[in-house]
Amino acid sequence: MGKSYKLTLIEGDGIGPEVSQAACRVIAAAGVLVEWEPVLLGARAQEWHGSLMPEEALASIRRNKVALKGPVTTPIGEGFPSVNVQLRKVLDLYATLRPVRNLPHVSSRYQDVDLVVVRENTEDLYAGKEHEVVPGVVESLKIITEVASTRIARFAFAYAAENGRKKVTAVHKANIMKLSDGLFLECCRRVASQHPAIEYNELIVDNTCLQLVMDPLQFDVLLMENLYGDIISDLCAGLVGGIGIVPGANIGKEGAVFEAVHGSWPAAAGQDLANPTALILSGVMMLRHLGEQDAARRIEQAVVAVLRQGVCTRDLGGSVGTKEYSGAICRELQR
Ligand code: NAD
């Protein structure tokens, strides 16, 4: 009998419950024993608890240290920034990790892409410091600190070292934002000098976009501030076939929340249309974080095997629904 875990489950809104149930089924089929503690966050939490981010949900993540999270809806125009941005800030989940890789049978413009986006999560223009100076003039403050920049750079280099990655590219716009991005680069350089075995280079963010679409294979680990990371993560998902397949993790000292890149796609809720691959692969990242390397590897292999058989959801040109697809992965795991 293997170890058993108590973990927080945030099913989320829209397609969230379907993709999270699919991920939980697959994790169970891999033989990992999890007692899920379900909590609400986002629109359903607002409905049931009168708050988009109830204290109970935060307490559960703090207690269990690890959560699997479906996408949540942030209602528009209610003065609340974004549930996700807030969650990362409140729990100090300072690093987002997004591995971007091709999967078989998923058509895309490129093959053999294998890069990782490391994004700082707690500051930059997402600090939420905006105000109107005078009518018709607003200011949004870009906050960059030495502490947060050094911390994310250390995270990126440690990840590279632990995962056999060869190169870290710091993405910036220090030619224009000389102070803020300049400080970020200074911190990156300092950390890079402590990791001589890992190649380090710097690239201006616009050139990074160009280079990514011209030749994504030149990249290994991409290290960046919050806003650039948000934008470039989606661009990178597009390099390998879309947001239905790219997993992610938000990691801090006190906990980690594993979630897909995509949103809650409210129009498709309850229709068995969503591709659960991204959340299943986020579950794989979660299992690796827990030290369940064997189960993680077997799930990855099962996903690949099922895709190779041509079994996939409609967004990838297939015809099966969320349940049938995840059922096929479970059967593959139990063969
Ligand atoms: P979205 O990702 O929900 O949907 C955009 C499009 O992507 C959809 O129309 C659909 O065609 C496709 N898509 C998304 N997920 C898919 C899946 N699993 N399988 C197949 N196709 C998929 O983005 P949006 O419409 O901009 O946002 C909807 C809501 O999600 C908003 O409230 C937003 O705040 C929220 N959101 C949440 C997260 C999160 O919780 N991590 C991330 C992004 C957006």
In short:
Helix content is about 40%, strand content about 20%. The protein is built from 11 helices and 12 strands.
Please provide a written account of the structure.
The protein has 335 residues and is α/β, with parallel strands linked by helices. The protein has two domains: 1-94 and 243-335, Isopropylmalate Dehydrogenase; 108-240, Isopropylmalate Dehydrogenase. 41% of the residues lie in helices and 19% in strands. The chain is built from eleven helices and twelve strands. It has helices at residues 16-29, 43-49, 55-64, 83-90, 146-162, 180-193, 205-214, 226-239, 277-290, 293-308, 322-334; strands at 4-10, 33-39, 66-69, 95-101, 114-120, 130-134, 137-140, 167-172, 199-204, 221-224, 249-251, 256-259. The chain has a ten-stranded mixed sheet, sandwiched between helices. Strands 6-7 form a two-stranded antiparallel ribbon. The longest helix is centred in the middle third of the chain and has 17 residues, at 146-162. Bound molecules: nicotinamide-adenine-dinucleotide.
What keyword list fits this structure?
12 strands, 11 helices, 335 residues, 2 domains, binds nicotinamide-adenine-dinucleotide, Isopropylmalate Dehydrogenase, single chain
Secondary-structure map:
Elements: E1 4-10, H1 16-29, E2 33-39, H2 43-49, H3 55-64, E3 66-69, H4 83-90, E4 95-101, E5 114-120, E6 130-134, E7 137-140, H5 146-162, E8 167-172, H6 180-193, E9 199-204, H7 205-214, E10 221-224, H8 226-239, E11 249-251, E12 256-259, H9 277-290, H10 293-308, H11 322-334
Parallel strand pairs: 1-2, 1-3, 3-12, 5-10, 8-9, 8-10
Antiparallel strand pairs: 4-5, 4-11, 6-7, 11-12
Helix pairs in contact: 1-9, 1-11, 5-6, 7-8, 9-10, 10-11
The structure holds nicotinamide-adenine-dinucleotide.
Nicotinamide-adenine-dinucleotide is lined by residues 15, 19, 71-74, 84, 243-244, 259, 262-265, 274-275, 315.
